[in-house]
Protein backbone atom coordinates (compact mmCIF):
# COMPACT_ATOMS: atom_id res chain seq x y z
CA UNK A 1 0.00 0.00 0.00
CA UNK A 2 1.22 3.52 -0.80
CA UNK A 3 2.20 5.28 2.42
CA UNK A 4 0.39 8.59 2.87
CA UNK A 5 2.44 11.72 3.26
CA UNK A 6 5.47 10.34 1.46
CA UNK A 7 6.80 10.95 -2.02
CA UNK A 8 5.28 7.61 -2.99
CA UNK A 9 1.86 9.16 -2.36
CA UNK A 10 1.59 9.80 -6.08
CA UNK A 11 3.47 7.17 -8.01
CA UNK A 12 5.32 7.87 -11.23
CA UNK A 13 2.42 6.14 -12.98
CA UNK A 14 -0.12 8.47 -11.30
CA UNK A 15 1.83 11.53 -12.41
CA UNK A 16 2.24 10.10 -15.92
CA UNK A 17 -1.48 9.39 -16.14
CA UNK A 18 -2.26 13.02 -15.30
CA UNK A 19 0.33 14.33 -17.76
CA UNK A 20 -0.96 12.03 -20.51
CA UNK A 21 -4.55 13.07 -19.79
CA UNK A 22 -3.54 16.71 -20.25
CA UNK A 23 -1.47 16.04 -23.38
CA UNK A 24 -4.44 14.26 -24.94
CA UNK A 25 -6.62 17.38 -24.54
CA UNK A 26 -4.27 20.03 -25.92
CA UNK A 27 -1.78 20.26 -28.74
CA UNK A 28 0.39 22.69 -26.74
CA UNK A 29 3.70 21.05 -25.74
CA UNK A 30 4.93 23.43 -23.03
CA UNK A 31 8.63 24.15 -22.54
CA UNK A 32 8.05 26.76 -19.82
CA UNK A 33 5.92 26.33 -16.70
CA UNK A 34 4.79 29.36 -14.74
CA UNK A 35 3.32 29.43 -11.23
CA UNK A 36 1.30 32.51 -10.26
CA UNK A 37 1.67 33.85 -6.74
CA UNK A 38 -1.14 35.33 -4.66
CA UNK A 39 -2.84 38.09 -6.64
CA UNK A 40 -0.64 37.45 -9.69
CA UNK A 41 -3.06 35.27 -11.63
CA UNK A 42 -3.01 37.90 -14.39
CA UNK A 43 0.25 36.34 -15.57
CA UNK A 44 -1.80 33.51 -17.09
CA UNK A 45 -3.84 35.99 -19.11
CA UNK A 46 -0.72 36.76 -21.17
CA UNK A 47 -0.98 33.37 -22.87
CA UNK A 48 -2.44 33.28 -26.39
CA UNK A 49 -4.59 30.49 -27.86
CA UNK A 50 -5.48 29.30 -24.39
CA UNK A 51 -6.66 25.86 -23.43
CA UNK A 52 -7.59 25.96 -19.75
CA UNK A 53 -8.60 23.29 -17.24
CA UNK A 54 -10.19 23.76 -13.85
CA UNK A 55 -8.13 21.92 -11.25
CA UNK A 56 -11.24 20.00 -10.21
CA UNK A 57 -11.41 18.39 -13.65
CA UNK A 58 -7.77 17.23 -13.74
CA UNK A 59 -7.17 13.69 -12.44
CA UNK A 60 -5.20 13.64 -9.15
CA UNK A 61 -5.03 17.45 -8.92
CA UNK A 62 -5.72 19.22 -5.61
CA UNK A 63 -8.12 22.20 -5.46
CA UNK A 64 -7.22 25.83 -4.81
CA UNK A 65 -8.84 27.10 -1.63
CA UNK A 66 -7.18 30.52 -1.21
CA UNK A 67 -8.58 33.85 -2.37
CA UNK A 68 -6.38 35.16 -5.20
CA UNK A 69 -5.68 31.64 -6.57
CA UNK A 70 -8.19 30.85 -9.33
CA UNK A 71 -7.51 27.12 -9.62
CA UNK A 72 -6.93 26.79 -13.36
CA UNK A 73 -4.17 25.23 -15.40
CA UNK A 74 -3.74 27.29 -18.56
CA UNK A 75 -1.88 26.13 -21.66
CA UNK A 76 -1.00 28.55 -24.44
CA UNK A 77 1.81 30.44 -26.10
CA UNK A 78 3.76 33.41 -24.88
CA UNK A 79 5.29 35.30 -27.80
CA UNK A 80 5.20 31.99 -29.66
CA UNK A 81 6.72 29.88 -26.88
CA UNK A 82 4.52 27.02 -25.66
CA UNK A 83 3.81 27.47 -21.94
CA UNK A 84 1.69 26.11 -19.13
CA UNK A 85 0.63 28.30 -16.23
CA UNK A 86 -0.75 27.45 -12.81
CA UNK A 87 -3.29 30.12 -12.00
CA UNK A 88 -3.31 29.21 -8.34
CA UNK A 89 -0.92 27.14 -6.26
CA UNK A 90 -1.22 24.97 -3.18
CA UNK A 91 0.13 25.73 0.29
CA UNK A 92 0.89 23.67 3.38
CA UNK A 93 -1.61 25.65 5.46
CA UNK A 94 -4.46 24.51 3.18
CA UNK A 95 -3.95 21.17 4.84
CA UNK A 96 -2.40 19.43 1.87
CA UNK A 97 0.46 17.01 2.30
CA UNK A 98 3.62 18.57 0.93
CA UNK A 99 3.73 15.92 -1.82
CA UNK A 100 0.39 17.20 -3.10
CA UNK A 101 1.59 20.77 -3.11
CA UNK A 102 4.50 19.84 -5.35
CA UNK A 103 2.73 17.28 -7.56
CA UNK A 104 2.28 19.84 -10.37
CA UNK A 105 6.08 20.17 -10.69
CA UNK A 106 6.38 16.48 -11.53
CA UNK A 107 3.53 16.80 -13.98
CA UNK A 108 5.21 19.84 -15.56
CA UNK A 109 8.35 17.77 -16.03
CA UNK A 110 6.39 14.92 -17.65
CA UNK A 111 4.70 17.44 -19.97
CA UNK A 112 8.16 18.38 -21.27
CA UNK A 113 8.68 21.61 -19.32
CA UNK A 114 12.37 22.60 -19.17
CA UNK A 115 12.18 25.80 -17.17
CA UNK A 116 9.90 26.73 -14.30
CA UNK A 117 9.22 30.34 -13.36
CA UNK A 118 7.73 30.63 -9.89
CA UNK A 119 6.28 33.80 -8.44
CA UNK A 120 5.10 34.57 -4.95
CA UNK A 121 3.91 37.34 -2.69
CA UNK A 122 6.19 37.82 0.29
CA UNK A 123 6.79 40.03 3.29
CA UNK A 124 9.96 42.15 3.12
CA UNK A 125 12.41 41.49 5.98
CA UNK A 126 15.29 43.36 4.38
CA UNK A 127 14.95 46.91 5.66
CA UNK A 128 16.02 48.34 2.27
CA UNK A 129 13.06 46.70 0.54
CA UNK A 130 9.89 48.63 -0.24
CA UNK A 131 6.38 47.42 -0.95
CA UNK A 132 6.20 46.78 -4.69
CA UNK A 133 9.82 45.68 -5.02
CA UNK A 134 10.43 42.58 -7.11
CA UNK A 135 13.04 40.31 -5.53
CA UNK A 136 14.90 37.84 -7.72
CA UNK A 137 15.28 34.75 -5.53
CA UNK A 138 18.90 33.71 -5.32
CA UNK A 139 18.33 31.13 -2.58
CA UNK A 140 15.87 29.88 0.01
CA UNK A 141 15.65 28.75 3.62
CA UNK A 142 13.25 25.82 3.89
CA UNK A 143 12.04 26.01 7.50
CA UNK A 144 9.50 23.16 7.28
CA UNK A 145 12.30 21.07 5.80
CA UNK A 146 14.32 21.49 8.99
CA UNK A 147 11.57 19.54 10.74
CA UNK A 148 11.44 16.83 8.08
CA UNK A 149 8.64 18.26 5.97
CA UNK A 150 10.32 17.92 2.58
CA UNK A 151 8.46 17.01 -0.64
CA UNK A 152 11.03 14.31 -1.35
CA UNK A 153 10.56 12.51 1.97
CA UNK A 154 9.59 8.89 1.47
CA UNK A 155 10.64 6.30 -1.07
CA UNK A 156 12.57 7.81 -3.98
CA UNK A 157 11.64 6.96 -7.56
CA UNK A 158 14.79 7.33 -9.66
CA UNK A 159 12.67 8.05 -12.73
CA UNK A 160 12.03 11.47 -11.20
CA UNK A 161 15.49 12.09 -9.80
CA UNK A 162 18.21 11.11 -7.35
CA UNK A 163 17.74 10.35 -3.64
CA UNK A 164 19.92 13.26 -2.46
CA UNK A 165 19.57 16.17 -4.88
CA UNK A 166 21.96 19.11 -4.66
CA UNK A 167 20.32 22.44 -3.77
CA UNK A 168 23.31 24.79 -3.84
CA UNK A 169 22.59 25.38 -7.53
CA UNK A 170 18.78 25.40 -7.21
CA UNK A 171 18.31 28.90 -8.60
CA UNK A 172 19.73 29.11 -12.11
CA UNK A 173 22.41 31.82 -12.20
CA UNK A 174 21.98 32.55 -15.92
CA UNK A 175 18.28 33.12 -15.48
CA UNK A 176 18.95 35.45 -12.53
CA UNK A 177 21.33 37.44 -14.73
CA UNK A 178 18.76 37.46 -17.52
CA UNK A 179 16.21 38.90 -15.08
CA UNK A 180 18.66 41.63 -14.06
CA UNK A 181 19.41 42.47 -17.71
CA UNK A 182 15.76 42.48 -18.77
CA UNK A 183 14.79 44.46 -15.66
CA UNK A 184 17.40 47.11 -16.48
CA UNK A 185 16.24 47.34 -20.08
CA UNK A 186 12.64 47.77 -19.00
CA UNK A 187 13.65 50.52 -16.57
CA UNK A 188 12.82 48.48 -13.46
CA UNK A 189 16.20 49.07 -11.78
CA UNK A 190 14.64 51.11 -8.97
CA UNK A 191 12.48 48.26 -7.73
CA UNK A 192 14.34 45.12 -8.81
CA UNK A 193 16.21 43.45 -5.93
CA UNK A 194 17.71 40.07 -5.19
CA UNK A 195 17.68 38.06 -2.02
CA UNK A 196 16.92 35.00 0.05
CA UNK A 197 13.35 33.76 0.55
CA UNK A 198 12.34 31.93 3.71
CA UNK A 199 9.30 29.64 3.66
CA UNK A 200 7.19 29.02 6.76
CA UNK A 201 4.08 26.90 7.10
CA UNK A 202 1.58 29.71 7.67
CA UNK A 203 -1.27 30.60 7.63
CA UNK A 204 -0.63 32.96 10.54
CA UNK A 205 1.69 35.78 9.60
CA UNK A 206 4.88 36.18 11.61
CA UNK A 207 5.26 37.64 15.06
CA UNK A 208 7.70 40.50 15.51
CA UNK A 209 10.19 38.19 17.22
CA UNK A 210 9.94 35.72 14.34
CA UNK A 211 10.57 38.43 11.75
CA UNK A 212 13.62 39.63 13.68
CA UNK A 213 14.91 36.08 13.92
CA UNK A 214 14.42 35.33 10.21
CA UNK A 215 16.18 38.56 9.27
CA UNK A 216 19.12 37.66 11.50
CA UNK A 217 19.26 34.23 9.87
CA UNK A 218 19.83 35.81 6.47
CA UNK A 219 16.35 35.92 4.96
CA UNK A 220 15.31 38.97 2.93
CA UNK A 221 11.70 37.93 2.38
CA UNK A 222 9.24 35.56 4.03
CA UNK A 223 6.34 33.62 2.56
CA UNK A 224 4.45 30.33 2.66
CA UNK A 225 5.26 28.72 -0.69
CA UNK A 226 7.71 28.26 -3.57
CA UNK A 227 10.67 26.56 -1.85
CA UNK A 228 8.84 23.19 -1.83
CA UNK A 229 8.07 23.53 -5.53
CA UNK A 230 11.68 24.47 -6.23
CA UNK A 231 12.93 21.31 -4.49
CA UNK A 232 10.55 19.09 -6.47
CA UNK A 233 11.35 20.89 -9.74
CA UNK A 234 15.11 20.60 -9.25
CA UNK A 235 14.75 16.95 -8.25
CA UNK A 236 13.35 16.19 -11.69
CA UNK A 237 15.92 18.31 -13.47
CA UNK A 238 14.03 21.43 -14.50
CA UNK A 239 15.74 24.83 -14.49
CA UNK A 240 14.28 27.21 -11.93
CA UNK A 241 13.79 30.94 -11.79
CA UNK A 242 11.76 32.46 -8.96
CA UNK A 243 10.78 35.91 -7.84
CA UNK A 244 9.03 37.42 -4.86
CA UNK A 245 6.82 40.45 -5.04
CA UNK A 246 7.29 42.32 -1.77
CA UNK A 247 3.64 42.93 -0.94
CA UNK A 248 4.13 44.18 2.62
CA UNK A 249 6.91 45.04 4.99
CA UNK A 250 7.41 42.50 7.73
CA UNK A 251 6.67 44.12 11.09
CA UNK A 252 9.96 44.27 13.02
CA UNK A 253 9.19 46.90 15.60
CA UNK A 254 6.94 46.86 18.69
CA UNK A 255 6.00 50.51 18.04
CA UNK A 256 4.72 49.75 14.55
CA UNK A 257 1.02 50.14 13.80
CA UNK A 258 1.26 47.98 10.67
CA UNK A 259 -0.50 44.64 10.46
CA UNK A 260 0.13 42.07 7.74
CA UNK A 261 -3.05 41.11 5.89
CA UNK A 262 -3.99 39.17 2.75
CA UNK A 263 -5.98 42.09 1.25
CA UNK A 264 -2.84 44.24 1.10
CA UNK A 265 -0.98 41.29 -0.43
CA UNK A 266 -3.52 40.99 -3.25
CA UNK A 267 -3.64 44.77 -3.83
CA UNK A 268 0.13 45.00 -4.27
CA UNK A 269 -0.11 42.20 -6.80
CA UNK A 270 -2.56 44.30 -8.82
CA UNK A 271 -0.29 47.34 -8.71
CA UNK A 272 2.72 45.51 -10.09
CA UNK A 273 0.80 43.23 -12.48
CA UNK A 274 1.91 44.97 -15.70
CA UNK A 275 5.60 45.08 -14.77
CA UNK A 276 5.57 41.46 -13.59
CA UNK A 277 3.99 40.36 -16.85
CA UNK A 278 6.52 42.32 -18.92
CA UNK A 279 9.47 40.96 -16.97
CA UNK A 280 8.31 37.35 -17.21
CA UNK A 281 7.22 37.49 -20.85
CA UNK A 282 10.45 39.15 -21.98
CA UNK A 283 12.50 36.58 -20.08
CA UNK A 284 10.56 33.76 -21.75
CA UNK A 285 11.35 35.11 -25.22
CA UNK A 286 15.07 35.46 -24.38
CA UNK A 287 15.64 32.05 -22.75
CA UNK A 288 17.49 29.27 -24.46
CA UNK A 289 15.62 26.02 -25.12
CA UNK A 290 16.69 22.48 -25.87
CA UNK A 291 13.29 21.38 -27.05
CA UNK A 292 12.49 22.04 -30.68
CA UNK A 293 8.88 22.88 -29.77
CA UNK A 294 10.17 26.24 -28.54
O1 LIG B 1 3.18 32.40 -1.90
P1 LIG B 1 1.93 32.89 -2.53
O2 LIG B 1 1.11 31.80 -3.14
O3 LIG B 1 2.19 34.02 -3.50
O4 LIG B 1 1.02 33.51 -1.35
C1 LIG B 1 1.52 34.29 -0.26
O5 LIG B 1 0.47 35.14 0.11
C2 LIG B 1 -0.38 34.49 1.09
C3 LIG B 1 -0.51 35.39 2.28
O6 LIG B 1 -1.09 36.61 1.95
C4 LIG B 1 0.34 33.20 1.45
O7 LIG B 1 -0.24 32.13 0.78
C5 LIG B 1 1.75 33.45 0.97
O8 LIG B 1 2.46 32.26 0.67
N1 LIG C 1 4.64 34.40 5.72
C1 LIG C 1 4.32 35.49 5.02
N2 LIG C 1 3.76 35.34 3.82
C2 LIG C 1 3.45 36.45 3.14
N3 LIG C 1 2.91 36.58 1.92
C3 LIG C 1 2.80 37.88 1.66
N4 LIG C 1 3.24 38.60 2.69
C4 LIG C 1 3.67 37.72 3.62
C5 LIG C 1 4.25 37.86 4.92
O1 LIG C 1 4.47 38.95 5.43
N5 LIG C 1 4.55 36.71 5.57
UniProtKB/TrEMBL annotation:
Pfam families tied to this protein: PNP_UDP_1
Protein EC: 2.4.2.1
Domain (Nucleoside phosphorylase) ranges: 32-284
GO cellular component: cytoplasm
Any GO BP annotation: purine ribonucleoside salvage
Top-level EC class: transferase
Protein name: Purine nucleoside phosphorylase
Gene: PNP
Amino acid sequence: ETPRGTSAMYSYEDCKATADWLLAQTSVRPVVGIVCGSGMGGLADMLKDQVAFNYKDIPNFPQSTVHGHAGRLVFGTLKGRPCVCMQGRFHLYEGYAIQKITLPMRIFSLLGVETVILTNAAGGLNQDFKVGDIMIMKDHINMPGFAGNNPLAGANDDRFGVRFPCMSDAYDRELQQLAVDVGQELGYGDFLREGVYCVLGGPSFETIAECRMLHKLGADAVGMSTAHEVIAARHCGMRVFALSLITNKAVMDYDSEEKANHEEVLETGQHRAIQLEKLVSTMVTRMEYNNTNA
